[in-house]
Write a structure and sequence with these properties.
This protein is an alpha/beta fold. About 35% of the residues lie in helices and about 15% in strands. It has a 9-stranded parallel β-sheet with strand order 1-2-3-4-5-6-7-8-9, with helices on one face. α8 links the parallel β4 and β5. α6 runs parallel beside α7. The radius of gyration is 23 Å and the shape is elongated. The relative contact order is 0.06.
Length: about 300
């Protein structure tokens, strides 16, 4: 009877049944019905496959990279998070996995990652459909990473945490579609490099800076003001949200931001977390004081030591 149903209806039934809470038993049964149902089930199960431990990772890699697979498992994979298995030294298997999964759109490497620089460079070659990438530091890698990301033309959201990227590599992140960049403990990035990056990535909508030592200076406020100034060459006209995290963010930083933009400049959201700003600076912003040149529609304050 199952085989007499239209294929698209079979697929809908299978998809809804598998998504039901705790219904993995159905998935195991559906795999044995016929090849069509096995295809439907595997496409759903592998789409956002969650690696729980090292043993499941080994089995996953073995299945996906098999030279004679029953089904094209690697083509089903859309997202992968290697964080749970980073500590085991997974580079060899991850190297093979990346080559077999060309349709991945979301990838998290974890922090620190045990992937070697050659494997990371191959991501830019074999996973060109990526739109979300999160990278951490490289374990046992004392040098700055030279990598060309320009091949990832679909990349929209990037998180870099202590990633030892050369400035030249940082600039190769694709220009046309990048919408958000989150820099965490990126101590080598300087304000002038941030300005240059924004100049080459005009479609940024979110800029988040967290505990970046070289950025957290008095020059950061001026750099952010430049980014928000409409007629400046480094302006990001689509920028809607700025997030600043770290005790090094002070009243001086924000004063430079708020006083160096043209009067009436608008920002949709400013998020301040774990900063050292004081009520003397924040209260006029909350009260929409007319002397404030930058108008912030939404101000989010979280765990700031003096507030």
């Amino acid at each position: 009877m199952v085989s007499k149903l239209p294929l698209d209806l079979q697929q809908v039934i299978c998809r809804h049944a598998i998504r039901s809470p705790g219904n993995n038993r159905f998935a195991m049964i559906a795999l044995t019905i016929n090849k069509s149902w096995a295809y439907f089930v595997c496409r759903i199960l592998y789409r956002h496959y969650r690696i729980k431990n090292y043993l499941t990772f080994i089995g996953f890699v073995k299945t996906v990279t098999s030279p004679n697979p029953v089904l094209p498992y690697g083509l089903f994979v859309r997202s992968i998070d290697l964080t749970p298995v980073n500590k085991y030294g997974i580079d060899m298997r991850a190297h093979r996995l990346i080559r077999c999964c060309p349709n991945i759109v979301e990838m998290t490497l974890g922090h620190p990652t045990t992937l070697k620089k050659e494997t990371i460079q191959e991501i830019a070659i074999y996973n060109t459909k990526l739109h979300t990438l999160s990278m951490g530091g490289l374990e046992s890698f004392p040098f700055m990473l030279d990598c060309d990301f320009s091949g990832l033309s679909e990349l929209q959201h990037v998180t870099l945490k202590t990633t030892p990227l050369l400035s030249s590599s940082f600039m190769t992140l694709p220009h046309d579609k990048l919408k958000s960049i989150r820099l965490i403990q990126m101590d080598a990035v300087k304000p002038d490099e941030l300005l240059l990056f924004c100049q080459h990535h005009p479609h940024l909508q979110l800029l988040a800076i967290e505990n970046c030592k070289a950025l957290m200076t008095d020059e950061l406020g001026k750099a952010l003001a430049t980014i928000l100034t409409p007629h400046d060459s480094a302006a990001c006209l689509e920028l809607k949200q700025i997030e600043l995290v770290g005790h090094q963010v002070t009243d001086t930083t924000l004063t430079a931001l708020f006083s160096n933009v043209p009067k009436g400049t608008r920002l949709y959201k400013l998020k301040l977390c774990n900063t050292s700003v004081t009520p003397q600076l924040i209260n006029p912003i909350l009260q929409h004081d007319s002397s404030i040149q930058l108008r912030v529609e939404k101000l989010e304050l979280l765990n700031n030591r003096y507030l």
